[in-house]
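Review this chain:
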Amino acid sequence: MAGTLPQHGSPKSGYSANNAAAVPAITQTDSRDKWSKKMDFLLSVIGFAVDLGNVWRFPYICYQNGGGAFLIPYILMAVFGGVPLFYMELALGQFHRTGAISIWKHICPIFKGIGYAICVIALYVSFYYNTIIAWALFYFYSSFSSILPWTNCDNVWNTPDCTNYFGVDNVTWTNSSRSPAEEFYTRNVLELHKASGLRDVGGVRWQLMLCLFLIFTIVYFSLWKGVRTSGKVVWVTATLPYIVLFILLIRGATLPGAWRGVVFYLKPQWDKLLETSVWVDAAAQIFFSLGPGFGVLLALSSYNPFTNNCYRDAIVTSLVNCLTSFVSGFVIFTVLGYMAEMRKVEVEDVAKDKGPSLLFITYPEAIANMMGSTFFAIIFFVMMITLGLDSTFGGLEAIITAVLDEYPDYFSHRRELFVLCLVVICFLGSLSTLTNGGAYVVKLLEEFGVGCSIIAVGFLEAIAVSWFYGIKRFSNDVQAMLGQAPGLFWRVCWVAISPAFLAYIIVSSLLKAPPLTLFDYKYPDWSITVGYIIGFSSFMWIPIYMVYKLVWTPGSLKQRLAVCLRPERTIPDIHADTLNMATVSQKDMNTSVCL
C-alpha cells in the first residue's frame, strides 16, 4: 500500500537534541515532555493501535464476510478512509503540540466539545477494557499448573453438561453440551450462573478485583512520569506480542488439521462483495483498529519534534497494524482447524465464537490439548495482557494530556497526583464489570459506550478540520513540518472521502442494529435504552459546548459566529518565525478553503 501513495519529503526530521532545540514553540510547550527516542513514539502508537481486537475481531470478521474476498473492501477502506484519518490526527497533534481539548482553540473553538466527548469516551473504555485484561491475568495465574484447569470436567465448578471430547471416543455432543473451557470461563472466572442478568448482577468477584488492582498499578507506574516512562515500558509491551504471535503461528502450523482452518479463513467468497454489510464491517474494522478519533494519536504525536516525518509514521504504523491483523488470522484459524480435526466436524462448527469468547474459550481449549500446554497457555495470556496494556496506556494518556494542557495552572506540576486520581476513578468505575454479571456490563459498555459515539466524534473532527479550519490552511501546516504540502489524494480524502466513510458507518449501524446477546442472555429493551443514554452522555458535550460558546461570546450573532469559528492562534503565532517557512498571506490564514 505504501508504494501506491504519494511521497513526502522530510527535511530535518529527527529526534536529536539539536533538532528539538532549534524549534522553540509557544510558551505552553517550552517545558513540554518529548519522546527520548523515535522508536518510543512508534512503539507507543503501534501498541495502541494493535490491541486485542486485532486478534479476536479481525479473523472472525474476515471469514464471516467472504474470507480472502474481504481483503478487497478492507484494503480500500484503509487506503481511502482509515489511513488518511490516522495521518490527519498525527499531523494535528504534532503541529499544535497540545491535547484533545485545548487543540480546538487553534482549529475551530466552537468544536471544543469534541475534546470533552473524547475524554468521556476514553473513561468508558477504561471501565470495561481493563476488566478484560484482568480476566487474562486470572487465566495467566491459573496456567501455572501441570494440568490446565480447563482441560477436563473433574472440577468443582463443572456441571453434568460438561463434555470433554478430546482423547475420548464415542462422545455425543448435544445442544446442551458445554466444553470444560467454556465452563471454566463462565462458571469459575465470571461466575455468570450467580447472576440473573443486568437486573441482578450479583456481588463483586474479589479475585478479579485483585487482578484489576494489579493491572491499574502497572498502568499508574507506567504513566505517572509521562512519555519518558511509558516510552520505555512499550519496548516490552509492544514487542513481546509479536514474539508470542510468531511462536504460536509456528506451533499452529504444525498441528494436524491446521490447513483446514487456513483454507476456511482465506477461501474467497466473491458473492459476498455484493452485500452492503461486508463493506460496513470493513469500514468499522479499519476505523476501530487504527483508532483515529480517540484522541490518543493527538496526544502521542504532540510530544514529537516539530519536523518529525509524521507522514512516514502514519504509513508505517498503519501497515504494521493491518499486517498484524492478517497474521493473527493464521494464528487463530490454524488452531480452529486443529479443533475441527479433533472433533471430527467442519471448521465453521467450531468457529462460531467471536469477541472475548474466542480468546477465553476456543483458543484455551485448543491449547489445553497440545503438547506443552502449560507453556503455550502462559505465553498466550502474557500476549493478551501486553496487547491490552498498550491500548490502556494510550487511552489514559489521551485524557491526561488533554486535561493537563487545558488546565496547566492546576495540574502541570501535579501530574503524578492527577494520574493517581484518574486511575482510582477508572478502578471504581470498573467495579460493576467485576460482578458475577460483569460480562453483561462489559458487553453493554463496549457496544454503546464507544460504538457510534466515537465514529460520530471522528466524523465531526474530520469536518471541522477540513471544512471549517480549511484544507488549505491544514495543508500549509503539514508543509511547515515536512517541507512539502500533501498531495491531491490526501486533500480529497480529508475533505470528502473520509467524512463520507464515517457517515456511511454511522448510518448503516443505526439502520441495521442487531439484537444484543451474550451467550444465552438476550438484553432487555430497557437495557438498550440505557445503552443509548450512555452513548449520548459523551456526545452531548459537543452541542452543549457550542451553545455555551455562542451564548457567552459578546456581540451580535454574526460576530459571535465569526469569533467561534475563527482559530484563536494562527501559524505565524506559533512556529512560522522559527521554521524558515514560505511566506503565507494573512488572507490564507483567516480564510477556510476546502480544495
